[in-house]
Amino acid sequence: MCISVPGKVILIKGKDAKIKQKGHFHWVDISLLKDKIKKGDYLITYQNTAINKISPKDAEEILRLMDSASDAGIKGSD
Question: Which of 41, 52, 46, 51 is nearest to 18 (CA)?
């Protein structure tokens, strides 16, 4: 099972965006998204491709829940 961590857009160059996910930086392709993407937006990605834009509120809730699960020792299955 795959879990996608929300990433915050910090830079956009053409159809690519640099995002920060849990302290790591990645370049992702944003060409499949219909919404206009701007710095500060949150994206859900899969294999370096943005698949959805989500609200900051939703991103913060997902990150909070992931941190809570991690603190409780809950791990996903392979």
Answer: 41
pLDDT given for residue 4 in this prediction: 84
> DSSP secondary-structure letter at 36?
P
Q: Per 3-state DSSP, what percentage of the chain is helix, strand, and coil (rounded to 5)? A: 20, 40, 40
Q: Can you read off the two tokens belonging to residue 24?
A: 């790591």
pLDDT tens-digit profile of 35-55?
999 999 999 999 999 999 999
Burial class (CB in 10 A: 0-12, 13-18, 19+), 41: buried
pTM: 0.85
Q: Is 6 exposed, middle or buried (0-12, 13-18, 19+ CB in 10 A)?
A: buried
